[in-house]
Amino acid sequence: MSFSFNETNSLKIEQLAKRYPQKKALILPLLWLTQKQEGFISDEAMTKISEISQMPYMHICSVATFYTMFKLSKSEKRVIEVCRTLSCELNGSEMIKKHLLENHSDKYEIIEVECMGACGGAPMCTLDGKYMESVTPKMLDEVLNAD
Ligand code: FES
């Protein structure tokens, strides 16, 4: 199976390539574009990113597997990410994760991630990539049960 970027993303890549003098700097933006386009990052996509960035496949693989925000397999469930880094942990992320696992893991994939760069809104979660700030179990129940 081969992978190619859609027309919109191909145009974005052309623009990004002009911005970065070194092609290896494209790796993270290309991983993000891939995940937005496909919902996950396949081996075929990593091969394509390797070609575009002119970096070895194993380098792309090591970057994609290092960051917890990149999904390497397709999930049928919608995704909730729970930040587990210090600000969020101090504001109850462990309790949020426990609540999600006990009440919503049948419909949602619950993933722990590192700092989302929005510590002022701790505890932070994302639902399908959209940020949710100052999350409480009640707030999650209202949002998730409304789906
Ligand atoms: S520690 Fe959770 S967003 Fe920064």
Topology:
Blueprint: H1 7-19, H2 27-38, H3 43-53, H4 57-66, E1 78-83, H5 86-90, H6 93-103, E2 108-113, E3 125-127, E4 130-132, H7 137-146
Parallel strand pairs: 1-2
Antiparallel strand pairs: 1-3, 3-4
Helix pairs in contact: 2-3, 3-4
FE2/S2 (inorganic) cluster is lined by residues 83, 85-88, 115-116, 118-119, 122, 124.
Structural class computed from helices and strand pairing: alpha+beta
Helix content: 40-55%
The N- and C-terminal alpha carbons lie at a distance of 33 Å
The Cα radius of gyration reads 17 Å
Write down the overall geometry: elongated
Question: What is the CATH domain class of the largest domain?
Answer: Alpha Beta
Parts with pLDDT < 50 across at least 5 consecutive residues: none
> Helix tally?
7
CATH topology of the largest domain: Glutaredoxin
| Domain module count | 2
Portion of residues in beta strands equals: 5-15%
Bound small molecules, deduplicated = FE2/S2 (inorganic) cluster
Question: Which strand order does the major sheet show?
Answer: 2-1-3-4
From N to C, what is the helix and strand string?
Answer: HHHHEHHEEEH
Write the CATH homologous superfamily of the largest domain.
Glutaredoxin
Kindly describe this structure.
The protein is α+β, with helices and mostly antiparallel strands and 147 residues long. It folds into two domains: 7-66, Arc Repressor Mutant, subunit A, CATH 1.10.10; 78-146, Glutaredoxin. Helix content is 49%, strand content 12%. It has helices spanning 7-19, 27-38, 43-53, 57-66, 86-90, 93-103, 137-146; strands at 78-83, 108-113, 125-127, 130-132. A four-stranded mixed β-sheet has the order 2-1-3-4, with helices on one face. A hairpin with a 2-residue loop joins strand 3 and strand 4. Helix 2 packs antiparallel against helix 3 and helix 3 crosses helix 4. It is elongated, with a radius of gyration of 17 Å. FE2/S2 (inorganic) cluster is lined by residues 83, 85-88, 115-116, 118-119, 122, 124.
